[in-house]
Amino acid sequence: MYIDANFIEVKKDFIRGKGSTSIVNDAFLHTKAPISELHPCLETSKFKFCPAVIKIANNFSINEYKHVCKEVAVALKIGNHRHVCCLLGWTIYLKAYSLIYEHIDGGNLLSWIKCYANGKEVVTDIQISKILWQITDGMEYLSMLGIVHKDLAARNILITKTFEIKISDFELASFCWIDSLYYSETNQKLPIRWMAVESFCQIFSEASDIWSFGIII
């Protein structure tokens, strides 16, 4: 999944977002993405010489390396799904571990909702139903793979210009254990407003993701 940084053109003036651990910029991929060879299909074949986004870690440390490895492992398990944002590969950019994702030409669900809240246009029931169905379709796929997202929120749901939903941000995602649960062993920064009650005891599962989905609704 490694991509040489020389093949990645980072557009520093186009910042998608900033967080406590990373910054996301628009980019352009001047090669073929490794995901297209690991999961060959019509959808992944388009990931070559294409727009992308790059998530650059704020620190160059062993913890950041572990986070990148974990996120890559989750992405490899996911492969490609029409309602999940696809990881194209990873690199080291300016001495920082970085992840390269597919470019989504719309904003995120939270921004979309705020745009309508401040305008005169009305969000129809059909639009709401379409959004919610696509989220459930993507999350059902993740659940079938034994993956818990742990940070399902409107800010992490991207929308294309053709109104297609893409679930993103797998920084906290984990694989379930044999009992279909995930027990967190470390203290992480977690999205408290979206967390199920049992998650305050560091227990996560498909059910806790469903709770977060309820908050989105």
Automatic annotation (TrEMBL):
GO terms for molecular function: ATP binding; transmembrane receptor protein tyrosine kinase activity. It comes from the Eukaryota. GO terms for biological process: cell surface receptor protein tyrosine kinase signaling pathway. PROSITE patterns: PROTEIN_KINASE_DOM, PROTEIN_KINASE_TYR. One of its GO terms (cellular component) is receptor complex. InterPro entries: Kinase-like_dom_sf, Prot_kinase_dom, RTK, Ser-Thr/Tyr_kinase_cat_dom, Tyr_kinase_AS. Residues 10-217 form the Protein kinase domain. Pfam families: PK_Tyr_Ser-Thr. This is Protein kinase domain-containing protein. It comes from Panagrolaimus davidi. The lineage of its organism: Eukaryota, Metazoa, Ecdysozoa, Nematoda, Chromadorea.
